Prior knowledge:
This protein is of the alpha/beta class. The chain has helices at about 35-45, 65-80, 90-100, 110-115, and strands at about 5-10, 20-30, 50-60, 80-85, 105-110.
Amino acid sequence: MSELAQVEVVPTTSKIEKPTTMVLEGEIGKDELPQLADMLFRLAHRGITRIVIDFEGVTHFDFRGVKPLVQRAELFRVAGGDIKLSGLTPYLHAIFRSAGGAGAFDFYAQKDDAVSAFKGSV
């Protein structure tokens, strides 16, 4: 089992929530998918709705996790936030595309680009 994620929670005192970055690493298989869903649930429960998931260190993502991730993103959007993805290789893009997640997310080459993209949305 690989190290799933490091979550960088940046406390904020302003009314505008700063994005939280989840850094995923290794292979994200069917055994790790519930952990990812649980982390997103815990963040949402804490009122954190602006998430960047950094896939730079991910070598594989199980296709069965794409649709649940899309559903989570829709819930975050209803709450006024979003989930943006960064660092996907062409291989990971292909997984998202083939599993129906291509149009559901904003994809960024670097996590800093994804974080910056939140600045335009309030």
